[in-house]
Amino acid sequence: MTDQLLRFTFLLALIQGPITLALHPSTENNHTLVGYAFKQFFSRDWLNCIQACHDESRCISYNYERSASADGLCELNYCGVEELSYRDRLLIYSTGFVYQQIRRRKHCLLKSCQELKQKYPEAKSGIHTIDPLQKARPIEVFCEFDIEGGGFSFLPHSVTNRLDGKAVVDALFKDRKNVLLKLKKNVDGSEWYTLIQPHPNYADIDFGVLVNNYSGYTEPINVFMQKYVFLGILPKSIANKNTTQGFKSNGIIAEFWNCDANPNSFFALFPNHHHQLPSDYAKNLGFENSGIAVNWRSHAKAVSSGSLKMPNKFFFLTELHFGGCGCYTSSDRWKKFGYNATAIGIR
To answer: Which keywords fit this entry according to its UniProt record (predicted)?
Structure first.
């Protein structure tokens, strides 16, 4: 009897306390907030989950598995659903669970995967919703926390459809000498990665990442597809010379001699929304067998088998154009090593 009275008193305190205003509007049956838990434990008593969240200052909301046949999984989340218009993007339907927010917070979405990693080192790689611009729509990215120091935000196809796509990329792209590319194999869907860094001869030149634009660089051959993410290695004002050029792939130099000062130096990644055929420009099989077109892929490393795979919406048809005696290729032509698409991660 005493135990029941204590439980009733505690619940009454919750209802009457300062957290009440946030409690009712943010309660959802058969839903969970996925990917934001900093602590998990099991308890068949729902009240224990509520109290654990109440007692932990970091806990903004919790998920509880309350169905009679369940073990009572309790997940304490470091954020909650603040923007009602984004509720459907954040809360996942899950039978038997209840999601409840018990504290208000000005803004629960973080600005980038890098910020998420810094504030919550225990966060797992996977799809996260971030809010780079704070006053615009959030964006769903794949956060990579385990490779090359982590903190990389992998861009989805949808960034090319946003009018503020450039602003989103500018807000995320602060480490301008490190870009993480993931390659997908056509046969088994396995993922491999390579960290792209400047060639030693151009160690002081930042990369450029643009959206539907190639300002300062040269035009992609497949620009007729209209939507793309552009990774510029050397601006045309530097690449327009007879010099050794290229970049590093997982620490290994991939280079060529620019024989005619043609200033192409970029990767262009196309979501190919309308399923168009890529250009047949410079269909030279030599590019597909040797040189910079394949050297960079040869240094890719396998992503750990335990890592969560990225959905297709993060992988792009990819064009490479270098030189002047470097290469022109697109991922639909790639035979060597079996890759057929690329994803781009920035931090």
So the answer is: Calcium, Disulfide bond, Lectin, Metal-binding, Signal
**Tokens found for residue 63:** 């998920």
Chain centroid to CA 203: 26
Count the helices and strands in the chain (H runs, E runs): 9, 19
Residue with tokens 């615009």: 136
Cα–Cα distance for residue pair 96/113, rounded to 1 Å: 30
Amino acid at 57: S
| Nearest in space to 296 (alpha carbons), one of 221, 231, 229 | 231
CB 93 within 8 Å of CB 30: yes
> Looking at residue 22, what is its pLDDT?
42
Residue 279 pLDDT > 90, yes or no?
A: yes
pLDDT class of 82 with cuts at 50, 70, 90: low
Whether the model pTM is above 0.85: no
CA distances from residue 115 to 22, 164, 172, 309 in whole angstroms, order as listed: 25, 21, 10, 22
- Please state, as a whole number, how many other Cβ atoms lie within 10 Å of the Cβ of residue 40: 10
